[in-house]
Amino acid sequence: MLTVLDGQELRFEWTEAQQSSAPADAIIHRPDPASRVFQLETSARFDCLQLTPGFVLDLGQAARATLSVKNGCGQAVSLANPRTRLGVADFALSTTLPIDVAAGDSRQLSVDFTRGAQGLREDVLFVDVTQAATTLRYPITLRAQ
User: Fold this and answer.
1) What is the residue extent of each domain of the chain?
2) Class of domain 45-144
3) CA distance 72 to 14
4) What residues are paired with 52 via a beta bridge?
5) 75-109: buried (b, 16+ CB within 10 Å) or exposed (e) per residue?
6) 64 strand-pairing partners
7) Is the pLDDT of residue 92 over 90?
8) How far apart are CA 10 and CA 24, in angstroms?
9) Among candidate residues 83, 76, 87, 60, the one with its CA nearest the CA of residue 143
10) Among 19, 62, 86, 107, which is 20 to 30 Å from 120 by CA?
């Protein structure tokens, strides 16, 4: 049973043993709040922005991992307002935001990992990406085995 509210964003990912799929993000739409019926719409992203390795930063056993943001858009984008979903202290964004990424350029976001407990450690880093007057929230899963 899952309670969902209009406008919430959900991340879907399958896991088996130590393997995971790429995440799929969707926004909840409930046309009638009195009804249990809802619709899912794929979360908006800028088609011209490329994240490498993608929307998951798997640190494995490493102390640092880097996410590359390549701007293939016709104008600059700004990355700002970093925050995490759970606040797991093991992960720390070492790149100071806000930063601008010029058209055709790329920048790196580095995340440091200091293990605070055994087992799988996971959180989601949210970064606001703004192009012109449009701001989209980008979720990046942070994971360490």
Assistant:
1) 1-43, 45-144
2) mainly beta
3) 30
4) 68
5) eebebeebebeeebebbebebeeeeebeeeeebeb
6) 112
7) yes
8) 8
9) 60
10) 107
Region class of 17: left (phi > 0), else alpha (psi between -120 and 50), else beta: left
pLDDT attached to residue 18: 74
Of the candidate ranges 5-9, 73-77, 105-109, the one whose mean pLDDT is the lowest: 5-9
Closest by CA position to 92, among listed 51, 68, 57, 118: 57
pLDDT digit string (tens) for 7-50?
A: 999 999 888 877 888 899 999 998 888 888 889 999 999 999 99
77-84 vs 24-29, strand pairing mode? unpaired
pLDDT of 125 higher than 80: yes
Predicted TM-score (pTM) of the model is: 0.90
What is the DSSP secondary structure assignment for residue 3, as one 8-state letter? -
**Whole-angstrom distance, CA of residue 22 vs CA of residue 14:** 8
What is the distance of C-alpha 141 from the center of its chain? 6
- Say how many residues make up the chain: 145
What lies within 8 Å, CB to CB, of 100 at 6+ separation is 76, 77, 78, 79
